[in-house]
Specification:
single chain; 294 residues; alpha+beta; outer membrane lipoprotein receptor (LolB), chain A; 11-stranded antiparallel β-sheet; 6 helices
């Protein structure tokens, strides 16, 4: 009898794992996923990305990695950030490496600590010198503390909810397994018209002027396609994978193209977020990258 009970339990678990998922229409799944974000208490996240662009008519590229923990659907978070890339300065190519910590203790308050910053070969440059001077210090991120374009640096709850409003499901890829859980998998792209409406509504909510002509021109060139994995039971997002092209937004910065993957795990199972041991809000510097003459 002592051997039969474990066997029965094992069979029961196996049968439960193989039970069919009641398939919902994609639109309903996306709607439930957007609602689930608002109730997400905590999660771990990882972001991997590659980007290529042109800066001041010269090519630049980078890879990035971010690992962190979020609470309240992304309104509070702490992460470790690393970036490695190449940039051309005065006709010479340089390797750039960045190691940083990002901390958002509350909505509208985001801080960065530059742990390491190297440029090889070394070069004297006002902007780079200003960045080097920030090493080992916590600084506030301009535009973030004021609720500007910087946004949060974790998977933003607005970004996760955006999926229900602007994503177009191109193909239903069936049920996949992510971290041992069954998830809806969809091939998706961005609906430009829906995104334009969303941007207009967001601008109105923030009492900002919406430039419809400029937005239309930008959206004609914007392109993003990818996959999204949504838990078949909780409707939490497990993973988003994107290939994108973002048109130039200024004369000095050209088109950006690349890939990004966002993975969320341990939904509602992560302990309380603890501020970094060396974080002191009273010692935070006010404006990162405040370069004289800019």
């Amino acid at each position: 009898m002592s051997r039969i009970l474990p066997c029965l339990l094992l069979v029961g678990v196996s049968l439960s794992a193989c039970a069919p998922v009641v398939r919902l229409p994609p639109d309903e799944v996306l709607r439930r996923a957007a609602a689930a974000v608002r109730t997400l208490k905590s999660a771990r996240y990882a972001v991997d990305g590659k980007v290529e662009t042109v800066f001041s008519a010269l090519p630049a590229s980078a890879t990035l990695r971010m690992d962190g923990q979020l609470e309240e659907g992304g309104r509070r978070h702490l992460s470790a950030f690393s970036l490695a890339g190449t940039v051309t300065i005065r006709g010479e190519e340089h390797d750039v490496s960045v190691q940083a910590s990002i901390f958002t203790p509350a909505p509208g308050e985001t801080y960065l600590r530059m742990n390491a910053f190297t440029v090889d070969p070394a070069v004297a440059d006002p902007i780079l010198d200003s960045v080097r001077a920030l090493q080992g210090k916590w600084v506030s991120l301009p535009g973030v503390a004021q609720g500007g374009r910087g946004g949060t640096q974790a998977p933003d709850p607005q970004l996760l909810q955006l999926q229900a409003h602007v994503l177009r499901v191109d193909r239903d890829l069936g049920i996949a397994t992510v971290d041992g859980r069954r998830a809806y998998r969809y091939a998706v792209s961005v609906d430009s018209e829906a995104l334009s409406r969303f941007l207009r509504q967001s601008s109105q909510q923030r009492d900002e002027i919406f430039d419809a002509k400029r937005a239309s021109t930008w959206l004609e060139l914007f392109d993003a396609t990818g996959d999204i994995f949504i838990d078949a039971t909780t409707y939490y997002v497990h993973r988003m994978q994107w290939t994108y092209k973002v048109p130039a937004h200024s004369i000095s910065v050209g088109d950006m193209r690349g890939t990004v993957s966002i993975t969320l795990s341990e939904h509602d199972r992560v302990g309380a977020l603890t501020p970094p041991a060396d974080f002191d809000a009273s010692a935070v510097l006010p404006a990162v990258l405040s370069v004289p003459g800019t």
